[in-house]
Design a protein that fits this description.
This protein is mostly helical. It has a domain at 19-43 and 52-79. The chain is 51% helix and 0% strand. Helix 1 (19-39) runs antiparallel to helix 2. The radius of gyration is 24 Å and the shape is elongated. The mean pLDDT is 87. This is DUF3098 domain-containing protein. It comes from Flagellimonas aquimarina. InterPro entries: DUF3098. It holds the Pfam family DUF3098.
């Protein structure tokens, strides 16, 4: 029969992401949320009246750019290795 070593230490569970990863994840999430907030509005109360404000710079260029930057930050946060030794 095998004997179990009572003094053997159990491996401590380690998280995949560290504090730095979560910081970048939340920054990316904030960019995405801000982009979607900037996309809202611009509609018309009366469906027979056209509102040209729906084609503003903020809704067509700025907001989608912020969403894409946020997604890029999310990818960077996932691929970031905080344990990498700096030379």
């Amino acid at each position: 029969m095998s004997k179990k070593n009572k003094n053997a230490q159990k491996p401590t569970p380690q998280f995949i992401f560290q504090k730095r990863n979560y910081l970048f994840l939340f920054i990316g999430l904030a960019f995405i949320a801000l982009g979607f907030i900037l996309m809202t509005g611009g509609g018309s109360d009366d469906p027979n009246v056209f509102n040209p404000d729906i084609y503003s710079f903020r809704r067509i260029r700025l907001a989608p750019t912020l969403v894409l930057i946020g997604l890029g930050i999310q990818v960077y946060a996932i691929l970031l290795n905080p344990n990498k030794n700096k030379k």
